[in-house]
Amino acid sequence: KQWYQRRVAITAGILRYITTAVVISKRRGTVIKELIKVLQQETYKDPITEFVESLYVNFDFDEAQAKLKECTTVIENDFFIVGCLEEFTENARLIISEIFCRIHQRIEIDMLADNLNMEPAEAEKWVVNMIRLAHLDAKIDSKNGYVVMGGTQVPVYQKLIDKTKDLHLKANSCCQKIDKRLTLGI
Question: 10 Å Cβ neighbour count for 176?
Fold first, then answer.
């Protein structure tokens, strides 16, 4: 982490490439959290870094759409990442729609298509793919043109009971293994 921060301080422009790599990556997880921390501390800004900030910090989808269009121009003119344009755009759309779907319970496919600069039929296919890839609990109501996010949450007390059962089973398994080793003299 310190190496990363020193490296970024030396060449702030490299943030564009790091941010591009994170957006393209299928496994963003904790990396995106670290990147956001760095982006908030740095003064360097360009459409690619601003795109990530608009989504993960401001949750401003209109700004993210505008920045995505600017990102296309920036990437087309950047020798080092021009080959990633299609993959970047595809993953950026996936990130936008994934965050949008996690926030809203019911989304019109036409509105989502407008936000993603797609035709409604293409957007519906896109949503099916996103639901599959992001493991979202959602259903598509093609008849009415909606995506309905699943709201069935497991109650907290049920989670606690399940975890307690798991711990009990694991503890019993460990005890049995210890007893077995003691009886065998290992």
Answer: 10
**What residues pair up with 170 in beta bridges, in sequence order?**
none
Give the CB-side neighbour count of residue 33, counting CA atoms within 13 A: 2
| 51 to 16, 66, 153, 158: CA distances (angstroms) | 11, 8, 31, 39
Residue 176 Cα distances to 69, 106, 129, 162, 169, angstroms? 60, 49, 45, 21, 11
Tens-digit pLDDT profile for residues 21-75: 999 987 777 788 888 888 888 777 889 999 999 999 988 888 998 899 999 999 9
Sign of CA dihedral 153, 146, 67, 95: positive
d(CA 22, CA 37): 14
Contact 19, 39 (CB under 8 A): yes
pTM of this prediction exceeds 0.70: no
